Amino acid sequence: MEKKTAAVLISACITVFLIITSANSLLSFGAEETVHTMFVNDEPWYNESQYKWINIFLVDYIPITILEKIDGIEIKFNKFLHNVMIMYGDDKYMTFDTDTSTVYTAKGDVYSASTYLLYGERYIPAELVCNYLGLRFEMTKNKTAMRISDGSEKNSFNELLLIYNPTLADIEPSEKDTSSLITTDDESVSSEDTGDEIGERTISMVFADIDSEHTPEILDILGSYGYKALFLTGENRIAGNTAIIRRIAIEGHTIGILLPDEKNNEKTYSEYYENGISANNLLYNSIKYKTRILCAENPISANARSSFESAGYMIITYNSELPRDKKISATSIYNKAQEYIRANEIVRYCFHTNANTVIALPRILII
After folding, report:
1. How far is 101 from 51, CA to CA, in rounded Å?
2. Which domain covers residue 311, as residue numbers?
3. 152-174 pLDDT per residue, tens
4. Upper half-sphere CA count for residue 244 (Cβ side, 13 Å)
């Protein structure tokens, strides 16, 4: 049977990092050399080893200083007014109010758009800025490389990748055997198609059980496919797991705080709120990383939600929880993933990190 696969866009929801002032930031920690994935016109960006682009709520954010490589762009920061202005030529400018997440343009337009201060660098929404300034923002289909250009470039994006990073270039693929199996000693997950073509889907991946012994294997798989995910931890899971949490941050994934079930919690909503803040503070004390992402397995009260959102937190949920029981086979996990993908155009998977998830994950990533 001919293999039919969906064109799947996988992005990590809401990647948020805190300032790290050390000369060796988490992003560059242990790196031997830069693999070029960020370009301006026909050249790699010189500071990629320290500042990568990130994806937050399916919006791509870039470090603002990358724009300084474009001739004619000037950036001004006003710490007193808490804003940053990007000017291009004589008649184009954008002012970001970092307190209210509002953008003002020379045309008098007003937008709602967030910026983030990560590792001492201001991150801005790439497409919004490039579209207004008349720049071109390009990304590879699987979001592994990006380029900003002003029309002066001589090479296409694909030609540039062939020069600096051929593994990411859009080269004509060779014929592949689509009947292969992912196997273990006791079971296999067939790659044979079992249904009609799925179509395009947007997928986010959330991994619970950050303290699982299988988390390093999950990270290896995600790294080999070039995908990012959100990993959840709670206050009682941070101590003793610093090494794996640090690795998650270094490899560009997002860390979020998993909130307990408020209905089964005897604390008041204010104490429940303090519990979430306390977990984030513990995370920062452990690896100098704070998150603004909270994940609630079940709906939380309006009072608790209001308290978190007023403090700048985002509360997310998932709509596709994969089997939690460790006895559930990899085939069952894969089949459930297919079921969710067929039922939802936007899929927010929640994986429970166990041995069978490790087996099923590669097949799920290419559904």
Report:
1. 22
2. 181-365
3. 998 888 888 888 877 777 643 33
4. 20
Tokens of 256: 């979020």
- Model-wide pTM > 0.70: no
- d(Cα 56, Cα 58) in Å, to the nearest integer? 5
What are the residues whose beta carbons fall under 8 Å from the beta carbon of 163, sequence distance 6 or more?
155
CA atoms of 330 and 199, how far apart (whole Å): 23
pLDDT average, residue stretch 39-51? 88
* The residue to which tokens 């699987």 are assigned: 142
Decide if 28 is inside a domain: no
pLDDT, tens only, 305-329:
888 888 888 887 777 788 777 778 8
Count of C-beta atoms within a 10 Å radius of residue 298: 11
Amino acid identity for residue 56 in this structure: I
Is there a single domain that holds both residue 197 and residue 317?
yes
Tell me what pLDDT residue 198 has: 53
27 within a domain of the structure (yes/no): no
How does strand 92-97 pair with strand 83-88? antiparallel
Residue 342 amino acid letter: R
> Both 213 and 312 in a single domain?
yes
Helix runs in the chain, H state only: 126-133, 157-164, 215-225, 235-238, 242-250, 269-287, 302-310, 330-343, 355-365
Are 212 and 361 members of one domain?
yes
Token pair 């997440």 is found at 101
Upper half-sphere CA count for residue 121 (Cβ side, 13 Å): 21
Report the candidate in 166, 167, 93, 99 with the shortest Cα–Cα distance to residue 129. Answer: 93
Q: Give CA–CA dist 338/331, Å, rounded.
A: 11
d(CA 41, CA 328): 50
CB 9 within 8 A of CB 198: no
| DSSP secondary structure code for residue 241 in this structure | -
Which of 83, 52, 67, 77 is CA-nearest to residue 134? 67
**Between these two residues, 21 and 337, which has the higher pLDDT value?**
337
* CATH (domain of 280): 3.20.20.370
Burial of 16 (0-12, 13-18, 19+ CB in 10 A): buried
Q: What's the pLDDT score for residue 208?
A: 84
